[in-house]
Amino acid sequence: MKRKMLRNKALQGLLITLACTAAVTALWLFGSLDTLEFKTLDARFRRLPPWDAAQGTPANISMVLIDQTSLEMVSRTIHHGWPWPREFYAKMIGFLHQAGARAVVFDMYFSEPDNDRPEISGADSDAALAAATQFASNIVHSYVLYRKGEDVPIEKRDAIKRMSALDGDGLDHVPALRRYSTGALPTNVLTEAAAAIGFATQEPESDNILRRQALLARFEDRFEDTVVKSQALAATGFLRPGDALRLEPGRLRIGADSIAIDASATAFLHWYRPPADRTSPFDHHIAYNILRAVIRQDAGMDPQIPPGTFKDRIVFIGSTATGSFDDWATPLTNSIPGIEIQATALANLLRGESVARVPRSVTFLLILLPALVTAAAANLGRRHTTIVIAVPILLLAAIATGGFAALARADWFVEIIPPALGVLATFMVANLTNYLTERRHSRMVRGIFEHYLDSSVVESLIADPEKVRLGGERRECTVLFTDVADFTTTSESLSPEQVVQFMNIYLDAMTDIIIEEGGFVDKYIGDEIVAVFGAPNPLPDHAARACRATLRMAEKVKTLQPAFKEAGCRTTIFARTGMCTGEVVIGNMGSESRMNYTAMGNTMNLGARIQGITKMYGAMVFVSQSTADAAGKGEFVFREVDAVRVKGKTQAEHMIELLGANTPGHPFADAVMRYAEALAAYRQRQWDRALAQLAPLVEQGDGPAIKLAARCRDYRQTPPPADWDGVTNMLTK
User: Fold this and answer.
1) Contacting residues for 447 by C-beta, under 8 A, at least 6 apart
2) Residue 431's pLDDT is what?
3) Do 166 and 249 fall within a single domain?
4) Is residue 163 part of a domain?
5) CA 122 remoteness from chain centre
6) Is this model's pTM higher than 0.90 or not?
7) Do 265 and 124 sit in the same domain of this protein?
8) Which domain holds residue 26?
């Protein structure tokens, strides 16, 4: 009998293992676990050792960046706006060629003829770039491919196919190449002048994080299709001319190096963590300095760029300026310029590095075997509870540790989510029925509501079940948007654990104050808090409550500085807040199966815009005129900072700064009076008078005063047009 029971338990464990393995394998094969798996890959990359700066830069790559500073300095000193004449890039090529650059790679697309300018025609400017490209003979240009769009001239397509096509066979090893039918292609003259040319099309994963790079693609038209190279692969072929490219099953051979690829010729990139004191493993130089060096050199002066800066370097040129729309999320960061990704891809190919995904047969065994061990341990029963619990914990730790070690030591991408899920599923299957009961379900639903919604919202929904449906009501509320100033910069200096510790301290304290003042937290967006005052329960003084909450939050942040410092923050933490009062639609939004209690409408949009504008003026708190009027000036001190017309709106909005509480002897009287007189003078075009009023405030570091003074000085040099109405127009959201 005992043997039979043991056999039955073994059979039961085997059946549970097979069922769980089959379910997990199905999810894995259908790609349902990919997004989560990729998140673990991101975490592994973030924990790899940083690049050793003593080795120089990966593949000896440097960058020349057209950043916001370059645009502003060129506009101010060379008197050229964006886009720059192509002649500028020709001069940069000449300078870098003379400086001994090994190659220059443009992560920019010259797909349209250059604009005509008074001092040079567009055709001459284009010709200068083509001539410099041909003369240097080490320039790599790029283009972008699209799946759909207008046909491009046949001569452009033919030039691309001649210069970017893959020579050789083995294409049967990559049957799933990405297909494109059009693109933004440069002229055939520029294409053929280049040493190499390749596509720089980026396609992130479904979670909008870019982890892989396509090395080949099919460029199709009505007559034929051609397999073309990526920018990185084309540059590699030029920089390693003696190393033949060969396609093999799951591999791209570059000489003696082997790059792991899939059926679409896509490779997982090996990301280089920057050193602790830098934001990039590659050297950065701003384009303005190169142009200034050219001008100085032409005038017989010292270019002020040390000799050897670009000697034997591969130099990337690209734009990182605001509005370039070339920012991407990667495993290492939420926002990185595309030029960094292209440089990483080229460094990988030149160094022969790639991340290889382990074969599916290995992953299947990693699902099955730990599940079998977990089932065997579970059969030991209650008398061996410690073993029953310890075995899956140890297995999960071994899976996670092994996955990291495989990446760190051998660039192997071992999938850990399917094995971990197999262990957890096998361990938990006996208890699934309990989790599916109605009582458990109802408790879970209530727990979810209380976790995501403020308790006042939950109680309101419980008291009136009719509210638990789609729809909303119009109501006047005050909305509050607040986030930590320069949080991206702050978080870069923190470990993930420190970021979590900081966020818990900050969000917990701010949320308590909002709730105490009668508001409810609509949502958290990273470090940003969105709160609404006046719903779900009506509050006649919602604007005043929002203002009080904001001032209390600012004071609380001051007292929390030691805690923030203990969490790893190196700089003083402060928040920027925007508020707007007006009508919102508030209620349950979403679908019948999934809804969220939230607010929507123009007031919400304007509140978010106002919060964003605070940074531009160096201010802490801006409110709309409607909020200032509703809150009343008896309790608070306000001052008008500017009239702003946000993008997409014709009506100007007055930006009102909340300075503090209106207590006896408050210190804001002089700032309010002087700024008001300066603003009036500014709107009357009396720049000197405004500057005189602003001078003491500027010396005190008053952000809005500094902004207005700078604008007065600019207008004194270049007066605004006759129809100027004193309103500042925002060109971006």
Assistant:
1) none
2) 40
3) yes
4) yes
5) 35
6) no
7) yes
8) 2-32+358-433
Last residue of a domain, one of 563, 582, 611: 611
671 lies in a domain? Answer: no
What lies within 8 Å, CB to CB, of 76 at 6+ separation is none
Is there a domain that residue 516 lies in? yes
Question: Do 325 and 374 fall into the same domain?
Answer: no
Question: Using CA atoms, how far apart are residues 361 and 185, in angstroms rounded to an integer?
Answer: 42
Number of H-type helices and E-type strands within the chain: 25, 28
- Whether 345 and 485 map to the same domain: the answer is no
Question: Hey, which of 180-184, 240-244, 267-271, 567-571 has the most confident mean pLDDT?
Answer: 267-271
Residue 118 lies in a domain: yes
Residues 6+ away with beta carbon under 8 Å from 93: 104, 129, 132, 133, 136, 139
Buried b (16+ CB within 10 A) or exposed e, 96-108: bbebebebbbbbb
Decide: 331 and 344 in contact? Cβ < 8 Å. no
For residue 468, pLDDT over 50 is answered with no
Q: Is 516 helix (H, G, I), strand (E, B) or coil?
A: helix
Local confidence band at 435 (pLDDT 50, 70, 90 cut-offs): very low
Which tens digit of pLDDT belongs to each residue from 401-425? 999 999 999 899 999 999 999 888 8
Nearest Cα neighbor of 270 from 348, 199, 196, 366 is: 348
Whether residues 55 and 184 share a domain: the answer is: yes
For 210, phi then psi, to 5°, come to -95, 115
DSSP 290-321: HHHHHHHHHTTS--SS-TTSSTT-EEEEEE-S
Q: Are 180 and 201 in contact (CB under 8 A)?
A: yes
Which residue, 323, 351, 379, sits at the end of a domain? 351
Residues 540 and 405 in one domain: no
Integer CA distances (angstroms), 47 to 127, 584, 606, 616, 657, in order: 48, 44, 40, 35, 43
One domain for residues 210 and 68 = yes
Question: What pLDDT score was predicted for residue 442?
Answer: 41
Total structural domains within the chain: 3
Q: What is the pLDDT of residue 444?
A: 40
CA torsion 556→562→564→567, rounded to 10°?
-150
* Over residues 637-651, mean pLDDT: 86
Alpha helices in 172-324 (DSSP H): 188-193, 231-239, 287-298
| The two three-digit tokens of residue 601, written as one number | 């409408």
Distance CA 52, CA 460 (A): 57
pLDDT(469) > 60: no
> What DSSP character marks residue 77?
I
Residue 293 pLDDT grade (very low, low, confident, very high; cuts 50, 70, 90)? very high
**Would you tell me how many other CB atoms lie within 10 Å of the CB of residue 641?**
23
d(CA 86, CA 97): 17
Same domain, 54 and 154: yes
Instruction: Give the DSSP H or E segment for 598.
Output: strand 595-600
